[in-house]
Amino acid sequence: MLFFVFVLFNLGTGKTLALLVSALAWLKRENEDIDNYNAALTNIVTAPPPPIPPPLPPPPQDGSASQAVHEKPQKRKRRVVYYCSRTHTQLQQVIDELRSCEDYLDNLRPCLLASRSHTCINSKIKELAKQKSLDEVCRKAVKEFRCRLAMTAASKEVSSLARMKLRIWDIEDIVQYGKKNKCCPYFLSKELHTGADIVFVPYNFVLDEGIQNASKINLQDAVVIFDEAHNIEGKSG
Asked: 78-235, superfamily in CATH?
């Protein structure tokens, strides 16, 4: 089921902080409930089987009794919030606000997705991109295993360490982290996207189906917040 909620704020009333705190408080409560449900389900599954009951009498032959079908309960997926803003610069301001409400991030993992143009640190790729599209050059280099930075970022050890080191981070933070640890910030952010609870993205990452699929953004059961939503029309054409 799809719901739309429109919230109007006057300029300078702290709408970004209000949206963040509300979203984080709801997300924390929701995912704690899901974690508790999944933990209880795991305990049920791993518990020893009950003793075998005595056989039941045969059902009547007139067809009046129907056999109950019991489906095995499934674990629930944690909920995800996608916080969208028009530009990377505006997302930077949102991240700055996020730093002021870190207490609400207990057991929640934030992530920011950005374009290659803002995160590429491979000088050879950037030089080739002066004549062609950076996205095209990057894809070709990765496909041909010519970007060691991208291959390093795909390592589970690298992404696991980054999850511990990067708590709340912006584009500059992950670019500096990539330079220091010799891994691609663009592909590292995509690795950190896996398992993230709140993801900050520009509008087009959600509105453009191609970018959405390439970024592995799944909006099923997700909450999507469009900050400065009056700018969407210019981005959705």
From this structure: P-loop containing nucleotide triphosphate hydrolases (3.40.50.300)
